[in-house]
Write a structure and sequence with these properties.
The chain is mainly alpha-helical and 317 residues long. The protein has a single domain, classed as Rhopdopsin 7-helix transmembrane proteins. The chain has ten helices and three strands, in the order E-H-H-E-H-H-H-E-H-H-H-H-H. A three-stranded mixed beta sheet has the order 2-1-3. Helix 1 packs antiparallel against helix 2 and helix 8 runs antiparallel to helix 9. The radius of gyration is 21 Å and the shape is globular. It starts with 10 loop residues before the first strand and ends in a 12-residue tail after the last helix.
């Protein structure tokens, strides 16, 4: 438990789902099933892309790394959340809280950067097809992924350092199901407005900046798609892009609500439900939307399972 007066907090209590005490077992079952499905989807994607030479192209290189990053991203939060749903006292050490925040933000920012790189890749493939292979070489792909990882964890380190540089003395109950920025900052017993401003600026650059770049790439997609003479071709291209765009809007929209709004409007129930969307729901949807609905991936899966004789009726991404 946290110690008062002159002693600092040594551990925190996570109370994110305390207002849903009658639903703890049900939430455990639902989140467990979602987590298993997310893990299975990402493992299938990484394995299929690894073993199938036909999928060794930039688009699937990014998809494979996104799956790996999201596997780590969910592992940082969900297993601990599941354990806490079955425990009465949901404690986490001060160091454990800082580590969880660092890893969560690191992989979260990396995911945003990878999604941006994927948008750039699709822009080149659709809008600059003649120069695509020259502009999106293996070296460029590797550099984009390396840049995403380094940027993600450098920014995460900066944010985590500033937050845990604050003094915590007395209150140790975090109004969340994991160590996220807003609820942790809210507990600090020292003045934190400057740190909040710095973190807000970084969040704007990452969340809003990434989403704007991705949105720009989709605007250019749609402009190119409109020039396709075939109505069937337009429909397939629009349906694929639309499904991806919906997932992106949900992901970045919920992240924006959480990280880009005034801290004075923070609400336990509201923020808990919003956070579930980008820690549980979108990681579950991403494998299905980006890979498992893709005709090439389905064909590779069927080949591995020895079921290539069945027809494929879904659209290609």
């Amino acid at each position: 438990m946290g110690q008062r007066n002159q002693t600092t907090v040594t551990e925190f209590i996570l109370i994110g789902f305390s207002n849903f005490s009658d639903l703890q077992i049900l939430l455990f079952v639902i989140f467990s099933m979602s987590y298993m499905a997310t893990l299975a989807g990402n493992i299938i994607i990484m394995t299929i892309i690894r073993v199938n030479q036909n999928l060794h192209i930039p688009m699937y290189f990014f998809l494979s790394f996104l799956s790996f990053s999201e596997t780590c991203y969910t592992f940082v939060v969900i297993p601990n959340m599941l354990v806490n749903l079955l425990r009465e006292i949901k404690t986490i050490s001060f160091t454990g809280c800082a580590t969880q925040m660092f890893l969560f933000l690191g992989f979260g920012i990396t995911n945003c950067m990878i999604l941006t790189a994927m948008g750039y890749d699709r822009y080149l493939a659709i809008c600059k097809p003649l120069n695509y292979h020259a502009l999106m070489s293996q070296r460029v792909c590797t550099q984009l992924v390396a840049f995403s990882v380094v940027t993600g964890f450098v920014l995460s380190l900066v944010e985590t350092f500033f937050i845990f540089k604050l003094l915590f003395c007395g209150m140790n109950k975090i109004n969340h199901f994991f160590c996220d920025m807003a609820p942790v900052i809210k507990m600090a017993c020292t003045e934190n407005s400057r740190i909040e401003i710095v973190i807000f600026i970084l969040c704007v650059l990452v969340v809003f900046g990434s989403f704007l770049l991705i949105l720009l790439s989709y605007i250019l997609f749609f402009n190119t798609i409109l020039k396709i003479p075939s109505a069937k071709g337009k429909h397939k291209a629009f349906s694929t892009c639309a499904s991806r765009l919906i997932v992106l809007v949900v992901h970045f929209g919920c992240a924006s609500i959480t990280y880009l709004r005034p801290k004075s409007t923070y609400s336990l129930d509201e923020d808990t439900l919003i956070s579930v969307s980008y820690t549980v729901v979108t990681p579950l949807l991403n494998p299905m939307v980006y890979s498992l609905r893709n005709k090439d991936v389905q064909m590779a899966i069927r080949k591995v399972l020895g079921k290539t004789l069945y027809p494929l009726n879904t659209e290609s991404s």
